[in-house]
Write a structure and sequence with these properties.
Layout lengths: L11 H4 L5 E4 L1 H17 L2 H20 L14 E4 L4 E8 L2 E9 L11
Parallel strand pairs: 1-4
Antiparallel strand pairs: 2-3, 3-4
Length: 116
């Protein structure tokens, strides 16, 4: 029996497409805008770009494997992804979609967190 050697020419993630779609809630989008406004006011464009890249990387991870992050203590069907020590992404999985519930700025009171 002759052995056939097989070598991948591309990285697996290049041909493994995500089946999940990211859906932004109005609350998540509004909170993202507040975070960007804050960064524009108090930080440099370099930090804004760094934040945007980090957010994009995390959303790609969530898209590829939504169950990667644990459930939130606040709600049993909502996942929690710590983006930075100041920002947490809360999302839920529905069929083939990931619904971003909110991006929460942890410098706020936890009582302001709206998950439903």
């Amino acid at each position: 029996m002759k052995m056939v050697k097989f070598t991948l020419t591309k990285q697996p993630e290049k041909f493994m497409k995500s089946t999940y779609k990211i859906i932004w809630s109005d609350e998540a989008y509004k909170n993202l805008q507040h975070i960007v406004d804050y960064l524009e006011k108090f930080w440099t464009s370099r930090e804004i770009i760094k934040f945007a890249r980090l957010l994009e990387k995390q959303l790609i991870l969530i898209k590829r494997n939504p169950a990667l992050y644990p459930y939130s203590n606040k709600s049993r069907n909502i996942h929690k992804c710590v983006l930075t020590k100041q920002t947490t992404i809360y999302y839920k999985i529905k069929d083939a979609e990931v619904h971003l519930v909110t991006l929460f700025d942890s410098r706020q009171s936890p009582d302001k967190l709206k998950l439903e």
